[in-house]
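Writing this down once: the sequence line spells out the residues, with the fold written below as integer tokens. This is how one looks:
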Amino acid sequence: MSFYNGTVTGLSKIATGTPSAFCRAVLSGEFSVNPHNIRKKGAGAQLHVRKGTSEIRLTATVVGLDKTDLAKFFPTTSGVQVASFPDFLVEVDDGATGREFVCTSGQPGNVTVSLPEGEDSEVEYQVEMLFAACSGYAAGTYIPVYNSYKGHTINDATVTISGVSENVMSFELSNDLGASLRNPLNGKTAGAKTFAAAAIVQGNDPALSFVTADEYGVENLFADDHTPVDIVLALANGTSAENITITLDDFVPESFNMPVTGEEFEGFSHEFRPGDGVTYNRVQVA
């Protein structure tokens, strides 16, 4: 009988059998497999069941994500697949018992970059990835690797709108790429028949929500048309190689909310999405 806790779970990138760092630390996550079982009831109390196509997803909330990997969740060109998306190692392994999985042929599903308000606030990244294939390995085969990045606290962050600081207190940037599987009728190899041919992305749907301490943007709230703005999220912790600049190109307001309350006043809530133009390259990570 084996028992586990979080200290013996792990996640990192892996290539040709060599693990490499994806982040400084994984705060939480989930490896899930949906076999999409075929299940049909028939006359005479018969039940027909067969295995379908495996849907393999990996989610994680992390800190200290490298900007090169973050950029893969914000494609700058149109297309059905993000180039050079890495394979991932995920495990529960105490060195003697457990299981390791290597997820391959994947694509980014969605991402959220968030910085809440608070004295101990830090930028966190929530990622979801979809994979077309996966292999299992015995405990002790690989060891996940982590970087030594400092991450970015609330004191490392600057938000400007059209080049001006607008008293932004917190933000959440998301992108949904609508990842799905493709499964053409080209024949399958025994032992891998439940794997799809590929994972693909279906689009780009970035959105930024943020809270300001004052009434930003209300003078144009009822204008005849939007005036697009560029929004820059700059994260700089004193180590230049770890600095991240996220630029949102020509975004327009999607919603505005001002609470009316007799107690605490939290601030003005805003949501922005891309304005007129193309769907890709609206969020640039550098």
